[in-house]
Amino acid sequence: MKHLVATLLAGLFFMMLPTASAQSAGSEPLRVGIAGLVHGHVEGFFQRSLHRPEIQIVGIAEADSQLASRYATQFSLDRALLFANLDDMLQKTHPQAVLAYTNTYDHRRVVEICARHGIPVMMEKPLAVSAEDAHAMADAARKAKIQVLVNYETSWYRSNHAAYDLVHEKAIGDIRKVVVHDGHQGPKEIGVQPEFLAWLNDPKLDGGGALYDFGCYGADLMTWLMDGQRPTSVTAVTQHIKPKFYPRVDDEATIILTYPKAQAILQASWNWPFDRKDMEVYGQTGYAMTVRHDDVRLRLKGEEEKQIAAKPVSAPNDDSLSFFRAVVLGGVAPDGLSSLETNVIVAEILDAARRSAASGKSIRLAGDGGAH
Predict the structure, then answer these.
(1) Digit-coded pLDDT (tens) for 255-281
(2) pLDDT higher than 80, residue 8
(3) Residue 292 in contact with residue 278, Cβ under 8 Å?
(4) How does pLDDT run across 82-124, given as a tens digit for each residue?
(5) Whole-angstrom Cα distance, residue 11 to residue 158?
(6) What residues have CB less than 8 Å from 142, skipping those under 6 apart?
(7) C-alpha closest to that of 25 among 329, 304, 343
(8) Could you give the percent of the chain with pLDDT greater than 70?
(9) The pLDDT of residue 19 is above 70
């Protein structure tokens, strides 16, 4: 068992190694279009990736001209890149892929427009504001034969992949309970951009508050750990602890997922005293607790707990843009955390959680994704 754990944490069983098709993409830059600028994560994208040689931004579609101008000034963007309309941008610039930084409600519109043009999409989490929208996007993607990916910061954490491998190599036994903690002090408190805060506070555009903003992380991770299995029931409790700041959406949420032999507790909050994204995975014979991005606290039967550094995830699976480029140019088939299939289930879970919180009742999920 010790040898198995050492092997796992040496990274030999981390996510799939780059395939020949992924490597064959070579140094060709991926031509990307940007759909929307109202999601605050776009600022981080520009800061970290604007000048990455493996991508080339060919157009930016944003209806708010003042917002577009602000970003153009801030990052010295060529004004010729700016378009007010996504269709117009796609027709005139012909990107190979689109990165969506819209509000969550607009994800369906972006995917359906890109599907008409045969262009793959990667969006910021979560996939959709409803199960209905998620299934509509999946239908559009299937008919157009395009890839649709969802980017979560936690998809690229070494610690999460170490926990996944410990589970799947039976190092800690079958999963019995998973507890996931995600969130921060609140979007207003941490000073997100005004256009970002506006739609995070809108139940139509965001789907909910902390429930959607941070509940999606745990739903994504648990669905991945459970190999795409839907929970049998979803129960949620939400609160408005800070109605002065968030009058229209929840700022505190707990979601309980049940499976035939396991349970998950997803704790999503805009009330943590500090930001956190970590999880505890309890098996029959041991546990693995992730510590931020890179470490795991591990305890096996008959042993004391120890904290171990997880080894790097193999490229291109260690970075959202590298992975997206490998999918579009290298033919890598997305699965797991970023995949459309996983994230349709995430959307079903969040939709059921919202209805559970409103009704005070547990929602049972049917095998085909329906709920009652």
Answers:
(1) 999 999 999 999 999 999 999 999 999
(2) no
(3) yes
(4) 999 999 999 999 999 999 999 999 999 999 999 999 999 999 9
(5) 9
(6) none
(7) 329
(8) 91
(9) no
Q: Is the pLDDT of residue 11 over 80?
A: no
Residues 109-142: b if buried by 16+ CB within 10 A, e if exposed: bbbbbbbebebbbbbbbbbbbbbebbbebbebbe
pLDDT of residue 28: 86
- Residue type at position 5: V
In whole angstroms, give the CA distance from residue 121 to residue 164.
Answer: 26
Joined tokens for residue 48? 């970290």
Q: Which residues pair with 298 in a beta bridge?
A: 288, 306
**Cα dihedral 132, 339, 260, 351 sign:** negative
Q: How far apart are CA 43 and CA 124, in angstroms?
A: 13
Contact 170, 142 (CB under 8 A): no
Residue 335's pLDDT is 87
Residues whose CB falls within 8 Å of the CB of residue 337, separated by 6 or more in sequence, listed in order: 152, 154, 155, 220, 221, 224
